[in-house]
Amino acid sequence: MLKIQTVLALSFLFVASYASVQDFCVADLSKPDTPSGFPCKDAKKVSVSDFVFAGLGGVGNTSNIIKAAVTPAFTAQFPGVNGLGISIARLDLAVGGVIPMHTHPGGSELLLVIQGTICAGFVSSSANKVYFKTLNKGDIMVFPQGLLHFQINSGKGPAIAFVSFSSPVPGLQITDFALFANDLPTELVVATTFLDAAQVKKLKGVLGGSG
């Protein structure tokens, strides 16, 4: 009798926990973001358009200092990925284009080259070992979460890639901009980078920093 009661109790717990699982949590972008993601949109207001994003078909604008463009399909652009642990973006690199050293603190990245040639790599946090390779159409490369990595168009024509992430909001910090596109005093940048003041001020001028 005790065994039957135990089985029934476990079955009840299983059914109760299963019933509490939501199919999805489409982001309600009208409400503030939180560390656990956006609040869920009222299920009655969810439509198929929340699960479709058509923004990756167009070429990104690469007329900028890095000759590159990233078109994201993160939660803010694609509410349906909220809470699902996935997202994607399009990467366009003009000839000579580069995505400088950067990190995604919120997720790992998988890059798939669909046009052109891209040299990509990352730096490990142990011994600063570098892993890099020239990638061609159809090649993929993974970049572990939080590690510094880069992509460079190493071919003679435009390059295109799709990058997927293990988070709907992977985050982004570009090292050059973190150092030289803010108002951190020049003397502190000099002290922490071993560059001289003239170099720091030049880079601040190029990237829009002050101080």
TrEMBL record:
CDD domains reported for this sequence: cupin_OxOx
Signal peptide extent: 1-19
Disulfide bonds: 25-40
Keyword terms: Apoplast, Disulfide bond, Manganese, Metal-binding, Secreted, Signal
Transmembrane intervals: none
UniProt-listed PROSITE patterns: GERMIN (PS00725)
Chain ranges of the Cupin type-1 domain: 54-201
UniProt cross-references to InterPro entries, sorted A to Z: Cupin_1 (IPR006045), Germin (IPR001929), Germin_Mn-BS (IPR019780), RmlC-like_jellyroll (IPR014710), RmlC_Cupin_sf (IPR011051)
Residue positions binding oxalate: 104, 109
Taxonomic superkingdom: Eukaryota
Record-listed Mn(2+) binding positions: 102, 104, 109, 149
Family of the protein in this entry: Belongs to the germin family.
PANTHER family: GERMIN-LIKE PROTEIN SUBFAMILY 3 MEMBER 3
Annotated protein name in UniProt: Germin-like protein
Organism: Deinandra increscens subsp. villosa
